[in-house]
Amino acid sequence: MLALGQDEIAKYPFLADAGQYLKDKGFTLEQFGTDPDLKQLIDKAFNRIQVAADGKIYKSDLIGDQVSKEAALPREVFSFLLAIVLLKLSGIHTLIKRFALAEARRAEKFLEKDLATISDESKKQLAIRVINDLFSVQVEKLDDYFVIPISDYLKHSINFHEREWKLINRHVENGRVFLTPHETVRLIRKELGTYINSKIINAKTPTMISGFEDSVNKLVLLSKKFITFTVTTGEYPPCIKHAIEVLEKGENLPHSGRFMLATFLLSKGQSVEQIAPLFKNAPDYNERVTLYQLNHLAGSSGSGTQYSCPSCQKLKTQNLCFATSECDNIINPLQFGKKRK
Amino acid sequence: MQEADTKFLEDSFKKYYFEHFDLIRVPERTSEREFGYQKFNSGMTRHISIKDDKELHLLFMQNIPSDVYCSNAYYSFPNLQMNEKDWKGADLIFDIDAKDLNLSCRKNHTISICNECNDISKNSERCLKCNSTKLEKKSLPCKNCIDSSKREVSKLSEILINDLAIIPKNIHVYFSGNEGFHVYVYDSQFQQIGSRERSELVDYIMFHGTIPETFGMKKFKPNRSSFPDFNEKGWRGKFSKQVFGSKSNRSKIISELLTNGYSSFQKTLVDVSEKIGVKIDPNVTMDIHRIFRLPGSINSKSGLTKIFCRDLSKFDPYNEASFLSDNSVEVFANCPIEFKLKNKKFGPYTNEKITIPTFAAVYMICKKLATIA
Hints:
The structure holds 2 protein chains of 2 kinds.
Chain A: H1 6-11, H2 18-25, H3 29-34, H4 36-53, H5 69-90, H6 93-116, H7 121-135, E1 140-142, E2 145-149, H8 150-157, E3 171-173, E4 176-179, H9 181-187, H10 189-202, H11 213-223, E5 230-232, H12 238-248, H13 255-267, H14 272-275, H15 287-298, H16 312-317, E6 338-340
Antiparallel strand pairs in A: 1-2, 2-4, 3-4, 5-6
Helix pairs in contact in A: 4-5, 4-6, 4-11, 5-11, 6-7, 6-9, 6-10
Chain B: H1 3-19, E1 35-38, E2 44-48, H2 53-63, E3 67-71, E4 73-75, E5 87-90, E6 92-97, E7 110-114, E8 120-122, E9 135-139, H3 143-162, E10 171-175, E11 180-185, H4 195-206, H5 234-244, H6 250-260, H7 262-276, H8 282-286, E12 291-293, E13 298-299, E14 304-305, E15 307-308, H9 317-320, E16 328-335, E17 339-341, E18 344-346, E19 349-357, H10 358-366, E20 370-372
Antiparallel strand pairs in B: 1-2, 1-3, 3-12, 4-5, 6-11, 7-8, 7-9, 10-11, 10-15, 13-14, 16-19, 16-20, 17-18
Helix pairs in contact in B: 1-10
């Protein structure tokens, strides 16, 4: 574990051991519920969650220096720790997820600032170490860039759907990818969110503490607005239509195309017997083999694994994507035609 | 395939495996690999683990397989079912095949075999006899096919070495035994990466998924300053050589690109991709559980051996990958195209009984263009 100063804990509160921190400062959770001076920190914590739920980043007191640092730093950490207590008490996973993501983006800002700093070498080193230790990305400074091995880059970049993150659109040299401080930090955003999320999920849920009830009830109300309904048009996406056309014409559909079509239809609830006839026109059609393979994909034979429909990204690589504007930036053919109401 | 043909191929393959076992390259970390094989007229047997040379030799002699495969992946338990194998890593593999290169020569040496009436004709969309569209295509690759595949291998090696920092001695090139080459990369930083990461490497190597901004063309307020230079490393350098041609042309062409605008630039990128992207089979590289033809084994699509290429530029598969005997054999041949093996020309044959060396007979029988008389 990294040794952290007061300053760092405020910036990266998720790195701290919560119980230990409270103990060191001489507080118990119960005190926050009863002591009128401390109680406003619960409001601050609630506010921190509310901001996150709205998809915004919590504005830290640390930025702008309106209050003295000595007073601000512990309050920052407390509001984070109390927010976790509130979230645990509410038990609402959607809120935990949103909170974790927003906190990740907040930490990202500090990490970026620290990476880019020219004056304070120790700050920069800490930021590099956070990235190294938590996400096993080997970062090295080279001139104005941060360089990381391609393999490390790929492990994280595959989570992005924007094309600018594709390796082909990156400065690659000698087995390494060159990134700006902003990009370096952006690269681990999702994992940072996952890390914070898992820390919260794994934290022990306390029993209800007197003085916390109001805020917890408010969180339950807050979460109501995330309930959405979806409707589907039922139309097939262009890649699936294309695959069916190819087969209908009796032309050869490559193995990867057959895989896509079968897994898509299976996911849509069709049975192996319903799907098999589609392949009848294939130049190398063999009923026995087709049924065997379909059963395998459906998980009803072999290892029992149910194969899922490949992502749009993968289908692009395999030249099976025929995207139209109707695809509307979906990331898997199964999402085609789904509309939020 | 008829029984006499199967028997003949089995005998020829067995003789090869008996006499040339030294050509079989047992991959490093043998016991961590999954092996598989096919017999003539039969399905695939896989999830086999093998300890050493001796066991492998035994497999060949006992089963006389038509094709033998070995995983590029390493497992703790290669003989268990897929989800229990415990995947540990996999060599990077690439498949370059002449059939994927859009070569103009292909139509001259592709044969259509009708699945309905077995009629054989030169490349056509429908069977000339019964009009069926269920055709199986067989190709007898020519020198141009091989030379073009070699060019792709060189392009690939260049990227592997310069961009991905692979040490040249860790790149092994094999003739696939049919129409192309298989490239292996050992001991790289990529051993542990999964399928999605490999798919990103594929797009990088194929020059897929580029955006204009990467090559200097901005959507809003584009300017000259961000276009790539000749001496830049990676794709930007290769892009400028391809698009600008010469240093003196650079300025003029940048002006043209700016005038034509963003969406025209996207079309330029598609054209450039076709020319400078490496044409590998994406599915092979993305697959981290594949069993891939074993080096030194015979490819039953041709009867030629998948063999290591020491010097790619001089390599001639029709001379160096054919190891079967010269003993004469009588066959009925229906092969509308001429081909060359071991410096001898054969064909074309139209439904005739001929006496030819075993290696040529095997080649045609494997291509379904002849049967034992």
